[in-house]
Design brief:
Elements lengths: L2 H23 L8 H4 L6 H6 L1 E5 L19 H7 L12 H10 L7 H5 L7 H10 L4 E7 L11 H4 L16 H9 L7 E5 L6 H5 L1 H20 L3 E5 L6 H4 L1 H10 L8 E2 L15 E4 L10 E6 L18 H13 L2 E7 L9 H17 L13 E3 L18 H4 L11 E7 L4 E5 L6 E4 L4 E9 L8 E4 L2 E5 L14 E8 L1
Parallel strand pairs: 1-2, 1-8, 2-3, 3-4, 4-5, 6-7, 7-8
Antiparallel strand pairs: 9-10, 10-11, 11-16, 12-15, 13-16, 14-15
């Protein structure tokens, strides 16, 4: 990559971010159609953030159970439909059998609303943890597919025929409002997850137009105007088209007339078949992610389930090394990682999830310069010899172990990603899953005579030489304890041609 090409690429990125910021400060009106709505650029803060925290929390956090390889937040759906889907082979009645054995055959899912007490919930403690994790934004389930709201939603109070929100049952608190207030004391942006549909709402099942006009739209407008989120993660769109949801009309309101910040970010889940086509940033879920210029985000849990699942064991949780390498892999391809935690029904974040977030935060303290605010380089990573892109077979949802197989623990005959690349205005960064023994070869990288290579987190400058278009870096012998961080080391390379 020539210096000119690098400067042009960075200049264009800066220009896009600048013009995006300018457009948000203007009074431009967006029309209720995709051509107009899609012309709105994804705000630059999202592309700079790189790391966010997803939070699935609601009545399903009380039973907090489903078979391994499935989503526990779908407890009501599994229970009432006697079906199951995920990684593994299931009879379909596992949740129903567990429920009747544990709570009895006549115990309704709606009873979990009263049991969802959240008596140990400390919004300020959550906010401090999220800030220490290095995350730049969060997205909490204001309402999942069961329809239960974490705020005093009038629609969730009257349209169901019984109170179905946290202010009128269970906790008797505005849980969303408490977290919003706590997050506003930090540098972490507050965002919402919101489900368009509700599995068993009577209007959704029998009078869809009424559901949209009298429930979905007014409820969405209420939660946005109350809490003014910087990010909205829509979901549950897949049974109806965007035209049926009247999504374009709602998003035009969001951009033009709502109280949301002018730099509010949305995702792409606003109608059947519209993912990766319309909306804001593109989303993937338990996949390896995307490549390309459009902003995107991969979401997945620290464990497998998004909601807390008491049935999961230690081996079902991703290690800190796995999560850090996953973050680096995603960022090298221009994406963000939205990493999920599942608090329990009492309002406590499981200790192992707290530990993982703090471990990621410690790594980012040292290596954040190679992550935050960066953009893709000429190539996202450098492969060794062998077959590329190992993926396990027979998994609908891709587990986190794939990144270990692609970096430090390859299957026989498969290549590994020897290093990942990012760049900013000042430097190119090479992030190494393994510390080389004597020499590091960075292929197809030319630098100027005064180039410098620094190990982030240290004052250490590495010697180098150019050979046949490759950069050969001398690696000093260091003990594991002498390395500045665990899991991966980042090199800052200035003076790239």
């Amino acid at each position: 990559m020539t210096l000119t090409r690098m400067k042009i690429g960075l200049f264009l990125s800066m220009f896009i971010c600048l013009t995006s910021s300018m457009s948000f400060s203007q009074t431009e009106k967006y029309e209720a159609n995709w051509e107009s709505l899609d012309s709105r650029p994804v705000p630059g803060w999202f592309q700079d953030a790189k790391f966010g925290i997803f939070i699935h929390w609601g009545p399903y956090s009380v039973p907090a159970w489903s078979p391994k390889g499935t989503y526990s937040e779908w407890y009501q759906y599994w229970l009432q439909n006697k079906t199951l889907f995920g990684n593994g082979k299931f009879s379909g009645t596992e949740v129903y059998d567990y429920h009747t054995r544990t709570y009895g055959p006549h115990f309704s899912y709606y009873n979990f609303g009263e049991m969802f007490q959240a008596e140990l919930f400390d919004a300020n403690a959550w906010a401090r943890l999220f800030e220490k994790s290095g995350a730049k934004y969060i997205a909490i389930t204001s309402k999942h597919h069961d329809g239960f709201c974490l705020w005093p939603s009038q629609e969730a109070s009257t349209n169901w025929g019984f109170p179905w929100n946290s202010m009128e049952t269970g906790a008797n608190r505005d849980l969303l409002g408490e977290l919003k207030e706590a997050m506003d004391k930090t540098s972490v942006k507050f965002g919402l997850y919101y489900s368009l549909y509700e599995w068993f709402h009577p209007w959704y099942q029998k009078d869809f137009d009424r559901f949209v006009n009298e429930h979905f739209h007014p409820q969405f407008k209420d939660v946005v105007n109350r809490y003014q989120p910087h990010l909205i993660f829509a979901d549950g769109e897949w049974e109806k088209t965007a035209e049926e949801w009247k999504s374009a009309e709602l998003l035009a309101w969001l951009y033009n007339d709502s109280k949301a910040p002018k730099d509010v970010v949305i995702n792409d889940r606003w109608g059947k078949g519209d993912r990766h086509k319309h909306g804001g940033y593109y989303t993937t879920e338990y996949e390896s992610g995307l490549e390309g210029g459009h902003p995107w985000e991969e979401c997945r849990g620290i464990g497998f389930s998004f909601g807390f699942n008491r049935n999961e064991d230690l081996e079902d949780y991703n290690s800190a090394q796995t999560l850090v390498l996953m973050l680096v892999d995603v960022v090298s391809r221009g994406g963000n990682l939205l990493l999920d935690i599942g608090p329990d029904g009492h309002g406590k974040i499981p200790v192992i999830m707290q530990e993982r977030l703090l471990q990621i935060g410690e790594w980012l303290k040292v290596n954040g310069e190679a992550i935050y605010g960066t953009r893709t380089w000429d190539k996202p990573y450098q492969w060794s010899a062998g077959k590329k892109d190992y993926k396990p077979e027979g998994q609908h949802y891709l587990g986190g172990d794939f990144i270990l197989k692609q970096t430090i623990d390859p299957e026989p005959g498969y290549a590994v990603k020897e290093m990942f690349f990012t760049q900013n205005e000042e430097a190119v960064f090479a992030i190494l899953p393994r510390w080389p023994e004597k020499q590091l070869i960075i292929k197809d990288l030319k630098v100027k005579k005064d180039a410098k290579i620094q190990v982030l987190g240290t004052e250490m400058q590495l010697n180098w030489r150019q050979e046949k278009g490759n950069l050969l870096v001398e690696i000093p012998e260091l003990s594991v304890l002498a390395l500045p961080s665990e899991y991966a080391q980042a090199l800052k390379i200035t003076g790239v041609k």
